Amino acid sequence: MLPRAAALPPGAAAGPGRRSPPPAGLPREPPPRGRAMAQRGAEAAATAAAEEEEAAAAEGPEGGSRRWGAQHAGARELAELYSPGKRVQEWISVILCFSLICFNFYNLLSYLRLEHTPSVIVGIFAGVITADFLSGLFHWGADTWGSVELPIVGKAFIRPFREHHIDPTAITRHDFIETNGDNCFMTLVPLANMAYKFVSFSPEALYETCPWECYVFALIIFITMTNQIHKWSHTYFGLPRWVIFLQDWHVILPRKHHRIHHVSPHETYFCITTGWLNYPLEKIGFWRCLENIIQGVTGEKPRADDMKWAQKIK
Ligand SMILES: [Zn+2]
Ligand SMILES: [Zn+2]
Known about the structure:
This protein is mostly helical. The chain has helices at residues 34-58, 73-79, 84-111, 117-144, 153-166, 176-200, 203-208, 210-233, 241-248, 255-259, 278-283, 286-298, 304-310.
């Protein structure tokens, strides 16, 4: 649910685990030599083609002359706001989150019984749907309201959403920590709460609540995975076969499906975990309805800050 983006300006030092994109107009790879190099050349060409395709998809009817991508002035400025302090927060979140996931998964398995099967299946399915809805709600909120200038949350959590719209493929250059740090941070409290139950509740109580905890656990896992799934939906080369299989069968967010969101002004298809809810929510005008209510109450215009960044040319 959290797009993370970090295009660096040409020539800027890359942060830990990151590569800076080459300036526009320069080849992305040195001229290939031999078969291996030729293959790398083809890979680079495929990536560049996919990026161009994505940049084109990101352009709205009014965006014809605008330069989207890593060289966009707004994208460069936003990328520079990715701080070392933020990087440390992401590392701590990822380590704590995955430790708690292992602990809770082990405990959950030890309380599962065969008779739980039907309710566990329903619980997992409901957990995935809830995660998809929450990914949409959070994504919509960050895309539509607030600004990068807001204290604390602006730079830490809204900035990546702004950057993702003007440089959609920056996310594909992020390492695991930068991609997943924010989502891991968000699931820490429910994961800690679940771990607390496993150490303090009686075995009888844990047996009783097992299906509910399966629902919560599936919800947490899919929220944690959302930005990785989102990154895959922007990746056009080198995806593992099983990821492509899951995308093709729409178990996780498919690439074509997510492209609908990336058409300016980015006002629909906000769900980015499985994308299952995008069509029904669009059909009932869910996001438009929420926007009208909020605009009526606060007077704020939806996506004003997003538009401001998109129009930045220097
Ligand atoms: Zn968006
Ligand atoms: Zn995206």
